[in-house]
């Protein structure tokens, strides 16, 4: 049986609503359930350049061959506060704090990733 | 009649390719990679409604193959195929039910395209953390899919007498 146009439109809207609801629930679940990270790993051109603890507040100007980005760690969250790249997508990306989250600055070939659990015990041993 | 359809099919494939190319010129990268408008899907949805599923399938796969060969790499081919095949399967299925219009089908296609690409990336790169991108991509897929669906719907009704 062929449905009329308005019936189809109603189904379309229902489908979109369900998808949006599911994605919002997933978004909330990812934000809440994903484990908090411990270290902030900075990679330039794919190579590890810096590894900073997420627990200690600091500001660091990261110089790459293409330009610089100001990495700020505050209250267990990392963000790029300032950068001289043309698109400044990294600055707009906001704060990250959960394991696996990352900020990318393509023009500077820079990525900032949150890694693993707080390395406190491990560091005590390895030091 | 058949020749006419084949010609139209070729025309739509060419159109889908140009739309993909145009889209690659205007990168829409916000916080998450993979966010895009999916302009080429308009041609596929048009084929799905005005021709049939078989033609839509052909147009999409040929488009993905040619665009990857011309403008991309083997890796983009793998991602795009995963996205396109899943997206087509979902769109064909929903079209078969007869319950949805172009907007719903376009949204379902967009969302499953994103899901297919994430799945391919997770399998190829072996990084489960890419799943974090999924919710954001679902939302962007809903928005982009709706826009493309609305445009496709208008084109389908305008072209009814010509095809």
Write a concise keyword list for the protein shown above.
heterodimer, A: 127 residues, alpha+beta, 3 helices, 31% helix, elongated, disordered C terminus, B: 163 residues, mainly alpha, 6 helices, 78% helix
Taking pLDDT < 50 over at least 5 consecutive residues as the criterion, the unreliable ranges of chain A are 119-127
Give the helices and strands of chain A as they follow along the chain. Answer: HEEEEEHEEH
| E-strand count of chain A | 7
Query: What is the overall pLDDT average of chain A?
Result: 82
SS class of chain A:
alpha+beta
Question: Which term fits the overall shape of chain B?
Answer: globular
What is the percentage of strand-forming residues of chain A? 25-35%
Strand order of the largest sheet of chain A: 2-1-7-6
Distance between the termini of chain A: 73 Å
Work out the oligomeric state of the chains in this entry: heterodimer
Low-confidence stretches of chain B: none
The helix-and-strand class of chain B reads mainly alpha
Strand content of chain B: under 5%
Largest sheet of chain B: none
* Overall residue-averaged pLDDT value of chain B: 88
The largest β sheet of chain A comes out as: 4 strands, antiparallel
- Measured between the Cα atoms of the first and last residue of chain B, the distance is 10 Å
Number of helices of chain B: 6
Overall geometry of chain A comes to elongated
* Cα Rg of chain A: 20 Å
Radius of gyration of chain B (Å): 15 Å
SSE layout and pairings?
The complex is a heterodimer of chains A (127) and B (163).
Chain A lengths: L4 H29 L5 E6 L2 E7 L4 E6 L4 E7 L2 E7 L5 H4 L9 E4 L4 E6 L4 H7 L1
Antiparallel strand pairs in A: 1-2, 1-7, 3-4, 4-5, 6-7
Chain B lengths: L1 H24 L14 H11 L2 H19 L2 H24 L4 H24 L8 H25 L5
